[in-house]
What we know:
- By secondary structure, the chain is of the alpha/beta class.
- It is built from 22 helices and 14 strands.
- The chain has helices spanning about 15-30, 45-50, 60, 70-75, 95-105, 120-125, 145-150, 175-195, 210-220, 240-250, 255-265, 280-285, 315-325, 325-345, 350-355, 370-390, 395-405, 410-415, 425-435, 440-445, 450-455, 460-470, and strands spanning about 5-10, 35-40, 55, 85-90, 110-115, 130-135, 160-165, 200, 220-225, 230, 275, 290-295, 310, 495-500.
- α6 links the parallel β5 (about 110-115) and β6 (about 130-135).
Amino acid sequence: MKRILILHDMAKGSRRTNRDHVYNYAKYHPGHLYVFHSVKAPITEALKSFPFDGIIMNYCFLSNRASSYELHKRRWSFLADHPAKKIAICQDDYTDHLRLDEWIRDVRSDVIFSPIQDNLDVLYPTNWGKATFREGLTGYTDHAQIEELESYSRPFADRTIDVGTRVRYLPPVFGRYGQQKGKAAEDFARHAADAGFNVDISTRVEDVIFGSRWLQFLGNCKFTLGSKGGASMADPYGEIRVKVSEFMARNPGASFELVEKNCFEGLDGKYIFAGVSPRLFESAALRTCQILTRDNYIGGMEPYVDYIPLNEDFSNLDEVFELMRNEEACLSIIDSCYNKLIASKAFDYSAFVNEVLDFIPDAPDFGDRNEAELLDTHFHLINAFRRTRERFGGTMETAFKTVLSLLKPENSLLLESTGWPRPYALSPGFAPIAAGLPESRRALFSMMPELLAYAEGDPEAVADLETIFEAFSGGDLAPERHLTDTGSLGWWDMCEYVFEPDGVQSAS
């Protein structure tokens, strides 16, 4: 048995790939204790002291290096002294990469999973040679969903689109490498159309296809075009991103060359940071023949065996078109690719989960009562937030957060003088605090008596509010009042756990 903390930054509407990356641990390797905790949720002393065997920092958790970095680094600094095995699951490593490197180093991560296949020593100078590095893809196959995925696949001969895809130009901050995919798609579309193929390729934002419609589209294409994704420029602290954003705001529609000259001249192309896309798996599962820029891909994929290779300079375009007209050869390529990427299960989430969990030791003394009490203490507060949000939500929630943001020592004294948090004593105590607020905040603040008057008729609602305010005004959460300054407490309720083993009481 293992006790595992999984840190994330998901919202209710997060993409399926994000949710898969977070929740598939419990799906494919049940029987452990998993605690899922949002980066924005309250951190209790009970959580800090819980004897986790492993702590997994998901890439969405680590994405906070680009915004509110110092805030989150401070909040989660306790990880450095936690004895658990710490594992960082990274993506987009080339953005704010020195911040990422520093954060991972400061919390003393043992293992780093990255989709980047080359030049990791450049991205992680302080961790390279110290932490263990493993390849971790941005997405995997999911055998529990393969049957559903394959339902969108039409027989090859019945497909009405010869070659189709959707590609976007990456922002200039990712360098010329981020532009190549879009340009290659547009050039290939023009040449293929001239050669008589029915083409549906677009780089326009308005042509993007989402969800099941994308699967239907791809399952109706005989061929699709692809390559590795990534960047040819690193942005150590996000300064280039800011410079590019400001320049493009002043010069909308500026060409890549103009942005490069004004924002990062001479910095592009020193290194290539590339990795494969989950589209490889989608195409393989849907039995769409892939035309890929000649490169090293995963799973031992071979040109002419598992994909049709396209030279970067298009010098073999006639050969590509000849192969596309050979249905027997294409069907053989499709079968081989399917067997390597899908049937083998080598790139299934279950395999990835097993690889990650293998780094985490089993708990020798799993499940004593003290652990159950710690979880009960933590989730007592978390569930108070969750229920409060469910009851009030919307504008009332915003008003509630406004009050929490003011629970600093000097304001807490004022609240205590009223006998807070008892609703009947509320209005007099809030008046002097509200007086100094901007008008917009004052309007929200004035709604608090209404919220608490409503809660007064519900003993459980009052109890939850008392729990929350006690924690923020001098109790469990007092050291991290700065959290509320960000105004980003929208996902207090994205905190949950899976409790499988017998003999340990679950928190509720």
